Amino acid sequence: MSREKDRVLAINPGTTSTKFGVYTRSGEELARTIHHGDEELARFRGQPMLARLEYRAGLIRKALDEAGYSESGRGLEPYSAVAGRGGLLPPMACGTYLVDDAMVEELRRARRGEHASNLGAVLALRFARAAGVSAYIVDPVTVDEWQDVARLTGSPLVERASVGHALNTKAVARRFAREGGWAYAELRLIVVHMGSGITVSAHRDGRTIDSNSIEEGPFGPDRTGSLPVRELIKLCFSGKMTEGELDRHVFGDGGLFAYLGTRDLIEVERRIVAGDRQAAAVFEAMAYQIGKETGAMATVLEGKVDAVLVTGGMARSERMVAQVRGYVDWIAPVAVYPGEDELRALAEGVFRVLDGEEEAKRMGKNREQGNEGTRERVKK
């Protein structure tokens, strides 16, 4: 097969959707999003995330068959590789990783938590083995490049952990640098990812030196973000919720959903236009918190910021972007990249390996490639 015809199948499972696409070096050849309704997902409630593997794999396979990407289809050449979104793995350096049985076992055990992204590597391996090729993940959510000072919390019993939208934030930072003719490592950037979760990260010397994690910072469509600690302690011991219910409240039923009963930003904006003052207040509060977190990352970069990059699904909202911009455009010029081009970022990471620009890492062998703080924590 000629290099020009190399195809990568990229798979990005989310909480309520599964996105996948087929990419060549020239770009996107196919992209699909499968939405999973509440009734479909209800039968998996209380089960490990990997219990959804066959369900999601079947939907992807059916959609690929319908598009002609099968042995019985249009006679297309097989995939050169399959890429999946990286899930809640141990702290890892930035890069492209080979999916192997050890990684799958780590995701099965889910020691760092259950999340839809845990399905990415396992789905990729399922399709890769069927095609007789290798599976990879790229810049998983546990990429850890933080500086040591970012880890301390004020209690030796609790340490901050780097968990966020590394795949999209890294891809957007590289894209901004490429479009401007700079090297990513030359720039000091703040990247604001506004999706189902919100990650605001500070980038310097080609590394993400600090960010809020998925359980900190601004509230989002269904996550509470940071909460007052003593009030949270009271809630934990109030008997109003079990541990599982409280976990679901802060990570799945919080944020917009807790206040307004919807995770849909478009619906929230419709209510605002219709005169719903509560919807307007909650929307403004979310934008305010995003702006405040961006200001914190400006401090991390000592006020020397080349650009603020706004991305993610909520960046499609002109109202949200305008409100966030109002809080942050004094920091640096703001560039907006609506959506999260994570499928393309997955494919590009694999093509870098196929083209010899990057060497594929293995999970157990490459943890030491992170920063010193990561190495010290892994040793403990």
Helix-strand blueprint:
Layout lengths: L7 E6 L3 E8 L2 E9 L2 H5 L10 H14 L14 E5 L10 E3 L2 H9 L8 H14 L2 E5 L27 H15 L7 E7 L3 E7 L2 E5 L17 H8 L6 H8 L4 H6 L4 H9 L3 H24 L6 E6 L5 H11 L5 E5 L3 H13 L17 H8 L1
Parallel strand pairs: 1-4, 4-6, 7-10, 10-11
Antiparallel strand pairs: 1-2, 2-3, 5-6, 7-8, 8-9
Helix pairs in contact: 3-4, 9-10, 10-11
Characterize the structure shown.
- The C terminus is likely disordered.
- α9 packs across α10 and α10 packs across α11.
- The relative contact order is 0.15.
- The protein is of the alpha/beta class and 380 residues long.
- It is globular.
- Strands 3-2-1-4-6-5 form a six-stranded mixed beta sheet, sandwiched between helices.
- β7 and β8 form a beta hairpin.
> From the helix content, strand content and strand pairing, which structural class follows?
alpha/beta
Which CATH top level class of the largest domain fits?
Alpha Beta
Shape: globular
> What are the segments in which pLDDT stays under 50 over at least 5 consecutive residues?
366-380
CATH T-level fold name of the largest domain: Nucleotidyltransferase, domain 5
Major pleated sheet: 6 strands, mixed
Order of helices and strands: EEEHHEEHHEHEEEHHHHHEHEHH
Tally of helical segments: 13
Strand order of the largest sheet: 3-2-1-4-6-5
As a percent range, the share of helical residues equals: 25-40%
CATH fourth-tier homologous superfamily of the largest domain: ATPase, nucleotide binding domain
Task: Estimate the strand proportion.
Answer: 15-25%
Mean of residue pLDDT values: 91
Overall number of domains: 2
Distance between the termini: 46 Å
User: How many DSSP-defined strands?
Assistant: 11
Mind telling me the C-alpha Rg?
21 Å
Name the CATH architecture of the largest domain: 2-Layer Sandwich
